[in-house]
Design a protein that fits this description.
- This protein is of the alpha/beta class and 526 residues long.
- It folds into two domains: 4-332, 3-Layer(aba) Sandwich (Rossmann fold); 355-524, Isoleucyl-tRNA Synthetase, Domain 1 (Orthogonal Bundle), CATH 1.10.730.10.
- Helix content is 41%, strand content 15%.
- It is built from 16 helices and 20 strands.
- The strands form seven sheets. A five-stranded parallel sheet has the order 3-2-1-15-16, with helices on both faces.
- A hairpin with a 6-residue loop joins β6 (139-142) and β7 (149-151).
- α1 crosses α10.
């Protein structure tokens, strides 16, 4: 992937802090990829933020006994602090402001002016006592596709869109004992079926850019007529929809993703010193940008399917995203994270106890790329101690023996071995086969090889050479490859973080003293 890359992780709802499940999926992956791409000389912008418009803000505030506005402000501070605690280097962090609202309105108003949005009558659950239409977080029931229990809007289990009126056995989340009735309302929709052929062509051309679960889900969605996608809702929480056909309604938060992404990328560009003429400048056809999403499996419909359809509806104004890289759910002690049940562990909480390099390594090694995985403190202590801390500290102690004694010669054999190591890391980091798991596995393998070398077991390259310049050289190459994950260790140990192309290794090296990883914290995490 060449040229400018816009990396986006969808904004979490502003109804609480991030937990390890969030960090282990899209956020760490997006950060690691961004750091890797920059280490190879590419221009990359990384953006995320918070989304305050979903109804989950209202329901959570109700449960916590606070106001939605206070909850949003507190959540924004918490999310930013948690990203920083995990070393997630965000360029553009979206918040709640008039500029964002104008961006969303402008994006949708162009579709409306072009006749792409249609008025349709839809059925919603309705709460007679409050006079409220129940959408998204206001209503729970069973998904009509997979029967899993959840809220309307999107199904976390199968990722299909779930129209509120199609939920089975609907009930109010705020007033579960109150009777719910069906009621119709006129809303604006994007007629998704008109874009099904375009979507099928798009995803057929990007088949290699999707992980299997997403590819299967998209195929299922596009194999049948696509339901109309609501752009407005009858309600009061959210961005006002000033369309004349639907007075008093608000924008469906799940219709915001493309406009939010454009706003997010504009903020990222500006904060890296490149002001833009318009929020959507990086997305315009021919702009030279490649857009890459890191997102949870449950977000593929609003971003990859409905979002892409909205871009198609702009009739060539925009280039389409290059890649959607999904992850599955990350659990805590083999059970789903649940703030309401107190079954949760935050990134800041863990970072107060454990160095973030150890956290980042463990989350990379256990990231739920293709199936659900689980975090436990015992596993964190055991895996980081045996696979990272102890072998690295043995390697660092060996390098320290030669610190300041140089330059030491680096053999052709060592340069060839280092090139193979770099190729392994690049294969794990490059698109479309990016994998935190394989990057962590490569680091473990190479540290074990180097640690064995210090014990007199040979270099592991087939020659048995133990020359000191070769050892120090290959240890540095391994650390450079691991730098997108081990950000603090690499930042202290290396003069720069560049990942050099194969075949450009040095003929000599001057060893420097190496920092250690903390064994005490790795033990205490048990």
């Amino acid at each position: 992937m060449t040229g400018r890359t816009v990396v986006i992780s969808p904004a979490p709802t502003a109804n609480g802090d991030l937990h390890l499940g969030h960090l282990a999926g899209p956020f760490l992956a997006a950060d690691v990829y961004t750091r890797y791409a920059r280490a190879t000389g590419r221009e990359v912008l990384l953006g995320t933020g918070i989304q305050d418009t979903p109804s989950y803000v209202v329901t959570t505030a109700h449960r916590l006994g606070t106001t939605p506005a206070r909850l949003v402000a507190r959540s924004a501070r918490q999310v930013e602090a948690s990203l920083a605690a995990a070393g997630i280097g965000v360029d553009g962090f979206t918040g709640v402001d008039e500029r964002f609202t104008k961006t969303v309105w402008g994006f949708l108003e162009r579709l409306h002016a072009a006749g792409k949005l249609r008025a349709r009558t839809m059925t919603f659950p309705y709460l007679p006592r409050t006079g409220q239409y129940l959408v998204d977080g206001y209503v729970r029931g069973s998904c009509p596709v997979c029967l899993a229990d959840g809220c309307a809007g999107l199904c976390e289990s199968c990722a299909h869109p779930v129209a509120a009126g199609e939920l089975l056995n609907p009930r109010s989340t705020m007033y579960p004992d109150e009777p719910v009735r069906p009621r119709q309302a006129r809303v604006l929709v994007l007629p998704m079926e008109e874009y099904r052929d375009g979507l099928r062509d798009y995803f057929a051309g990007h088949a290699a850019m999707m992980r299997p679960h997403m590819a299967q889900a998209v195929q299922q969605m596009l194999s049948r007529p696509l339901p109309d996608y609501p752009v407005t809702y009858p309600g009061s929480w959210g961005i006002p929809a000033h369309f004349p056909e639907v007075p008093g309604q608000v924008i469906n938060p799940n219709a915001e993703p493309m406009a939010w992404s454009m706003y997010c990328s504009a903020l990222a560009a500006e904060r890296r010193g490149t002001p833009l003429a318009a929020e959507d400048e990086l997305w315009l056809a021919g702009s030279g940008s490649s857009v890459v999403y890191f997102l949870g499996f449950d977000n593929i419909y609003p971003f990859a399917v409905a979002g892409t359809a909205m871009l198609l509806a702009h009739d060539g104004r925009y280039d389409l995203p290059e890649l959607f890289l999904t992850n599955e759910f990350y659990e805590l002690d083999n059970a789903k994270f649940s703030t309401s049940r107190g079954h949760v562990l935050g990134g800041r909480e863990l970072a107060a106890e454990v160095p973030r390099d150890l956290i980042r390594f463990h989350l990379a090694a256990t990231s739920p790329e293709f199936q659900r995985t689980s975090f436990s403190r015992e596993e964190l202590a055991r895996i980081t101690r045996s696979r990272l801390v102890e072998p690295w500290n043995r390697v660092a102690a060996e390098i320290d023996r030669w610190a300041g004694r140089g330059p030491l010669a680096v053999s052709e054999r060592s340069r060839a071995a280092a090139a193979r190591v770099t190729e392994r890391f690049v294969a794990a980091y490059d698109m479309p086969y990016f994998s935190l798991n394989r990057a962590a596995e490569t680091l473990v393998e190479q540290l074990a090889r180097l640690a064995g070398w210090t014990a007199g077991q040979g270099s592991g390259t087939g020659t048995g050479s133990g020359e000191d310049g070769d050892f120090c050289h290959e240890a540095e190459v391994v650390l450079r490859g691991a730098a997108p994950i081990l950000i603090d260790l690499a930042g202290r140990a290396l003069p720069d973080l560049a990942i050099r192309p194969a075949g450009r290794g040095p003929t000599e090296i001057v060893p420097r003293r190496m920092p250690r990883l903390s064994e005490r914290v790795a033990r205490d995490a048990r």
